[in-house]
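Duplicate of #3305? Posting structure anyway:
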């Protein structure tokens, strides 16, 4: 008997794309047993589309949660995930399109590897009308061959502590992972947090194949940030204080929770998380005067921290030149 499958779908204003997404779910070669929809205070026709399309789904348990006051992306997903009863849970954004084999392909991996806690995949990027943009999610994020190898080899924590390469719309998780990840810290986005917990305590993997069309449009709750030359130059010009405070808060929340993870994280993983917090603490404390930053940055580079916990020379350059 296969594991039962739930879909955690979070909706907002965006009814124009919702029907296509719902039809791609019901059109799966392996249909889900349950879909939990958590609507975060939409004011357009989202609820009407949901009710009309799902009315015919007599073989799928449809659960609708409605937030009168919007919770925000992370809390809304936590609510949807907590309400799912399936052994396996696929995360879903309302504006994407699932390829027919998405659930079948991912469930097969969990069946083959019972200790697998989380699986994420690539996606084809499309525009607002669904036309392919010519590249995939992993390409756009600049996920390196080294990061891919680390994930495949069971060392995903090394890749994830450098930067997030996991996108919730491509994820499937075991329900046990949801329970051990809750409550989700406010400093983290839901997908990044669950990926980090899974990597710290168990086995995760990456499918280097697109299983959804990931739609990019003006109304995305969370979209793809470009890593081309223009995007990198813009980051060097951006103020550093808020970003570094956010990175420190995330590292602090992870360090605070890590010792209580169940199953327990290893001593080496806990030491790595401690070192990540120490690195972000030093970065947050860099002085406003650029000339005075040079010494601490050089010491961090020689210690290997910029490569272990970031993008190497790219982050060194950021810390050297970004304004406060």
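Output from current build:
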């Amino acid at each position: 008997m296969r594991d039962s499958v739930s879909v955690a779908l979070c909706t907002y204003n965006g009814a124009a794309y919702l029907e296509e997404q719902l039809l791609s779910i019901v059109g799966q070669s392996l249909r889900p047993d349950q879909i939990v929809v958590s609507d975060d205070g939409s004011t357009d026709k989202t609820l009407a589309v949901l009710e009309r399309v799902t009315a015919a789904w007599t073989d799928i348990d449809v659960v609708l949660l409605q937030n009168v006051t919007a919770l925000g992306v992370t809390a809304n997903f936590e609510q949807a995930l907590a309400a799912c009863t399936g052994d396996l849970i696929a995360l879903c954004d309302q504006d994407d399109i699932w390829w027919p084999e998405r659930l079948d392909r991912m469930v097969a991996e969990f069946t083959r590897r019972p200790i697998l806690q989380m699986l994420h995949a690539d996606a084809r990027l499309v525009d607002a009308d669904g036309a392919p943009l010519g590249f995939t999610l992993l390409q756009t994020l600049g996920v390196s061959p080294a990061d891919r190898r680390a994930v495949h080899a069971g060392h995903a924590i090394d890749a994830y502590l450098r930067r997030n390469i996991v996108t919730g719309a491509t994820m499937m998780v075991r329900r046990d992972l949801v329970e051990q990840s809750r409550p989700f810290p406010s400093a983290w986005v839901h997908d990044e947090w669950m990926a980090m917990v899974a990597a710290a305590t168990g086995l995760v993997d990456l499918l280097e194949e697109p299983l959804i069309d990931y739609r990019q449009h003006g109304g995305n709750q969370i979209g793809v940030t470009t890593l081309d030359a223009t995007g990198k130059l813009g980051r060097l010009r951006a103020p550093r204080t808020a970003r570094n405070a956010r990175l420190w808060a995330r590292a602090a929340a992870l360090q605070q929770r890590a010792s209580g993870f169940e199953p327990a994280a290893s001593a080496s993983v806990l030491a790595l998380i401690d070192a990540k917090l120490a690195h972000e603490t030093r970065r947050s404390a860099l002085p406003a005067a650029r000339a005075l930053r040079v010494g601490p940055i050089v010491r961090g580079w020689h210690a290997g921290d910029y490569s272990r916990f970031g993008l190497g020379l790219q982050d060194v350059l950021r810390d050297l030149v970004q304004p406060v």
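Confirmed duplicate; merging threads. Residues 82 and 288 are 43 Å apart (CA to CA). The chain has two domains: 5-215, 229-321.
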